[in-house]
């Protein structure tokens, strides 16, 4: 009996250690509330970052990030600055409406005459008119619930990459993981587009770009083959580029 008790006394602590190591402990909490911050609640600005690139990386609307951090236009940020990526209240912003699809014109029928529309500012009246950013086979399509937030277009190193619509370059660099050398263009207050895995780049931040203008050469930076990864985002949310690009 004494031998059995000694054996139990030596084995029991070892079993407890194994059990504790096998199951993760709960985070320390106070009155049932976790003391841990939400993952990615803040982001420290690194050299080369812009407000647009940080918002893109976190899947936020740049206007929301600017508002939460009281950053006025032209949205200047500095290395070492700590940006909040969630609303101060800790709640998500109100969901925004889905982007309107581009108008489909029926070339078979002529539209009936309509009364002239009231005069509105040119910016408000302007509609985006997209063009393909590169020629090539479509390797991968947009996946709303999957990893691909854009389309992948096959090509060769040095092949031209074109701006899909007019706008201003708001980011150019290699600081976003998985994108290689990346260009982000702001088209209006709602839409931005991105061009990833570039080789040689012909534009820089602040440049005003025309629709169809050559902005880079296709490359394989950040990936395993020469291709263009192209994304369109509406108020921070990825949308299917094929809904906006002309039908091939």
UniProtKB/TrEMBL annotation:
Domain LysM: 41-85
One cellular-component annotation, GO: cell division site
SMART domains per record: LysM (SM00257)
UniProt signal peptide: 1-24
Pfam families associated with the record: LysM, Peptidase_M23
Residue stretches of biased makeup (Pro residues): 94-119
Keyword field contains Signal: yes
GO molecular-function term, one example from the UniProt record: metalloendopeptidase activity
Region spans: Disordered: 79-120
Keyword line: Signal
Signal keyword on record: yes
Family, similarity comment: Belongs to the E.coli NlpD/Haemophilus LppB family.
Name of the featured protein: Peptidase M23
């Amino acid at each position: 009996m004494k031998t059995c008790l000694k054996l139990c006394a030596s084995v029991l602590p070892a079993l407890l250690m194994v059990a504790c190591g096998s199951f993760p402990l709960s985070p320390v909490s106070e009155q049932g509330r976790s003391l841990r911050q939400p993952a990615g609640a803040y982001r420290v600005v690194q050299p080369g970052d812009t407000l647009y690139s940080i918002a893109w990386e976190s899947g936020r609307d740049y206007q929301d990030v600017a508002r939460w951090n009281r950053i006025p236009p032209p949205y200047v940020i500095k290395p070492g600055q700590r940006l909040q990526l969630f609303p101060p209240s800790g709640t998500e912003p109100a969901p925004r409406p889905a982007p309107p699809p581009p108008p489909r014109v029926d070339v078979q029928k002529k539209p009936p005459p309509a009364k002239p529309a009231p005069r509105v500012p040119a910016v408000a009246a302007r509609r985006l008119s997209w063009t393909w950013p590169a020629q090539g086979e479509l390797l991968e399509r947009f996946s709303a619930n999957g990893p691909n937030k854009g389309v992948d277009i096959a090509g060769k190193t040095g092949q031209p990459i074109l701006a899909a619509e007019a706008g201003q370059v708001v980011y150019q660099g290699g600081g976003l993981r998985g994108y290689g050398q990346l260009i982000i263009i702001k088209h209006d207050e709602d839409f931005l587009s991105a061009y990833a895995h570039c080789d040689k780049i012909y534009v820089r931040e602040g440049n005003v770009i025309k629709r169809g203008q050559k902005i880079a050469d296709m490359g394989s930076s950040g990936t395993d083959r020469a291709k263009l990864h192209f994304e369109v985002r509406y108020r921070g949310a990825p949308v299917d580029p094929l809904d906006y690009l002309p039908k091939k």
